[in-house]
Amino acid sequence: MFERPIVQAGSMAPERITVMQGQAVVSSDRNVELSTVLGSCVALCLFDPDAHLGGMNHFLLAEPPANATAASVDEYYGTYLMELLVNQMLSKGARKGRLKAHLYGGANVNRNMMRIGSANADFARSFVQREGIELLRSDLGGSSARRVDFRPASGQVRCRTVEDRFAPPVQPITRPAKAFGDVELF
Amino acid sequence: MSDVTRILTVDDSPSMRALLNHALTAQGFDVAQAEDGLAALDWLALNEVDVVITDINMPRLDGFGLIERLREGSRHRDRPILVLTTESSEEKKARARAAGATGWIVKPFDPAKLVAAVRRVAH
User: What EC identifiers does the entry list (chain A) (predicted)?
Assistant: First the structure.
């Protein structure tokens, strides 16, 4: 795949970091470009314009456990994944009230996963809305895979449709065995 | 103590507060919400509660600060305080314990385990 990075005149060639499913990456490095290819998966990009800091995650949530709420995806795990990205941003100097969001992905690329792609897009949109984070731009749904390139230090984003074969095959993620809310009483 | 267990949940994320509210009210608990440690202190100055469930990473006053402030006074010295957090470090767990936390619960929480913990400490 030949892709030109978002290069500004006079700047060095960027260090491109691929954000894989299940990851969250935060950086304030002006030379870093975060990239990902999304089919049914969704990426949330957050940016604090005052701190010149941004981050991206990449997720596809599974259906919730049988004993959970009637949601269409595992909101408990999804909210946790979102909180990890937000907390990484805050720990590096971002302020929640300044955060701006972009949302991409959630395409119905695979007919068998149509519902889960849309459900993930709905979850992500609802999360951003509930948190009171300003949504600058979203490109969700449809039937085409997307490539997203995000400059975390400047907030500059480019999203393009790509051939579906570039979207990596994925499975909805379920909570890892360790992530079941263990309780320790002192 | 009233018949219904009263819980104050303290978390800066409205999404997390909504999940907690859903999980706890479904089990018959009376749930109030605060968005950070200072809002929790304001609420606790005027209201009675049986259990506090608090996040760690919050603006203005974090979970450690909230626990320390509650343990300083006599009114909430013995109040059960459960920490609910994405933090997994032993150092932070030890700090919460030293500050006077009653228990440590790791996100993403399991509603059944959370409810069991609340019932156990809210005697």
Answer: 3.5.1.44
User: Mutual orientation of helices B14-25 and A114-130 as an angle, nearest 10°?
Assistant: 110
* Residue in chain A nearest B87 by alpha carbon: A84
Asked if A67 is an interface residue toward chain B (Cβ–Cβ < 8 A), one would say: yes
Structure tokens at B106: 């790791």
Rounded to 10 deg, the angle between the B14-25 and B111-121 helix axes is 70
ipTM rounded to 2 decimals = 0.85
Q: Please report, as a single letter, which amino acid is at residue B107.
A: K
Q: Cis check for the bond before B108: say yes or no (omega within 30 of 0).
A: yes
Question: Could you tell me whether strands A42-48 and A24-27 are parallel, antiparallel, or unpaired per DSSP bridges?
Answer: unpaired
CATH number of B6-121: 3.40.47.10, 1.10.443.10, 3.30.450.40, 3.40.50.2300?
Answer: 3.40.50.2300
Joined together, the tokens standing for residue A174 give 């379920």
